[in-house]
Design goal:
One of its GO terms (molecular function) is alcohol dehydrogenase (NAD+) activity. The protein has 381 residues and is of the alpha/beta class. It folds into two domains: 11-175, Rossmann fold; 180-380, Dehydroquinate synthase-like, alpha domain. The chain has helices at residues 21-27, 39-42, 45-56, 73-86, 97-110, 180-199, 205-227, 232-252, 256-268, 272-287, 292-302, 312-329, 342-346, 349-352, 367-380, and strands at 11-13, 32-36, 60-64, 90-95, 131-135, 147-152, 157-162, 167-170. The strands form two sheets. Strands 1-8-5-4-2-3 form a six-stranded parallel beta sheet, with helices on both faces. It has a two-stranded antiparallel ribbon with strand order 6-7. Helix 6 runs antiparallel to helix 7 and helix 9 (256-268) packs antiparallel against helix 10 (272-287).
Length: 381
């Protein structure tokens, strides 16, 4: 199997690293920066520290705080117009996956005419300006991926721009105030990304090492962070896991679970991490029919004991049961509890195959098989 090793940008990691943000941005040649975030993050102490660092470096700052979850194309277009009007020559994203994704998409519009929909899935455009990511959750790993997810409101689907950050500042202290439910959802996104990376058809040796390490860290430390959000060690371990997973799945790619989460998210407008968590057990059972050795690797990393006599199906089921129990312990609700109609869910099976992530599933599936996976997600949790 041919593989590609990559890391999209350098990462400045460590406690208090955000204090160096201004110098990092200035060293990239920026003088006028657009800070992209959401209103929740904009009210935090960590955001204030980041702004102080930028201003202390004599950088002119324009703030764009209108990002919402699953950022729609209209918000990105508004941010792009602001960036051009302000004459910015640098962008800083501060937040979780949505602000980081929106910043990537806004950067496409700095030197290219809108709307952003013209560049969804299209890598051919004039390069933007230096872009620095400051994650405030341990979830998407977007600081080290080449995609910025955008909701295409005309088509009612999630799509993406293609583009990298120039640098990332990963400071675990920025995640200390994240509420338990958000900690659980973002952490389960990391676990799903790592498990799917380990079983993807595009995996490579580096992605395998990083993703397996991330599984171990999430299983060990996510419950601690959910229980005590001020536990710095837990936050640091999860920040490492998230960053490692972003590097891993940028090469290996995620597959069926994220195709399902994207499709259901666009239809039902539910939290991405919750959907990834709910899909994960059944996706591992499916993966056991295609790459059983890789599923056993996921189980080993997750600390799930398999007996010598377990066949592939039994191994997949044991891992699925362990992941269901793990999600329940973190308070992840079922699709039924979230008000999802079962028939409406099953009707989405054909759309799952149209999501870009599905192409990296380890085995081709029929629509009937995908429908069965969706039914199992609904019935077995």
């Amino acid at each position: 199997m041919l593989g590609k090793y990559a890391q999209t940008c350098p990462v400045h990691f460590g406690r208090g690293a955000v204090a160096a943000l201004g110098g990092i941005v200035k060293d990239l040649g920026a003088t006028r920066v657009l800070v992209v975030t959401d209103q929740g993050v904009a009210a935090t102490e960590g955001y204030a520290r980041a702004l102080d660092s930028l201003k202390s470096a004599d950088l002119a700052v324009t703030e764009f705080t209108k990002v919402i979850a699953d950022p729609p194309d209209s918000i990105v277009d508004e941010g792009g117009a602001l960036a051009r009007a302000a004459g910015i020559d640098g962008i800083v994203a501060i937040g979780g996956g949505s602000p980081m994704d929106a910043a990537k998409a806004i950067n496409v519009l700095v030197h290219n005419d809108g709307p952003v929909n013209a560049y969804l899935g299209n890598p051919f455009y004039k390069p933007g300006v230096p872009l620095v990511m400051v994650p405030t959750t341990s979830g998407t790993g977007s600081e080290n991926t080449s995609v910025g997810v955008v909701t295409d409101t005309a088509k009612g689907i999630k799509s993406a721009v293609i583009g990298n950050a120039t640098a990332a500042v990963v400071d675990p202290e920025m995640t200390l105030g994240v509420p338990p439910a958000v900690t659980a959802n973002t952490g389960m996104d990391v676990l799903a990304q790592a498990a799917e990376s380990l079983t993807s058809k595009a995996r490579n040796p580096m992605s395998t090492v990083l993703a397996a390490d991330a599984v171990r860290r999430v299983v060990r430390w996510l419950p601690v962070a959910v229980e005590d959000g001020a536990d710095y060690r837990a936050r640091e371990e999860l920040a490492i896991a998230s960053n490692f997973t972003g590097i891993a799945f940028n090469d290996a790619l995620v597959h069926l679970g994220h195709a399902i989460a994207h499709t259901l998210g666009a239809k039902f407008h539910l939290t991405h991490g919750t959907l990834c968590a709910l899909a994960l057990p059944e996706v591992m059972k499916y993966a056991a029919t295609a790459v059983p050795d890789r599923v056993r690797l996921v189980a080993e990393a997750a600390g799930v004991a398999l007996a010598d006599g377990d066949d592939d199906a039994a191994a997949g089921e044991k891992l699925a049961a362990a992941f269901r129990a793990f999600s329940r312990s973190l308070g992840i609700p079922s699709l039924a509890a979230l008000g999802v109609d079962r028939r409406a869910l099953l009707a989405l099976a054909p759309a799952v195959t149209e999501d870009a992530c599905y192409a990296f599933a380890p085995r081709e599936m029929t629509v009937a098989e995908i429908e069965a996976v969706l039914a199992a997600i609904y019935d077995n949790y």
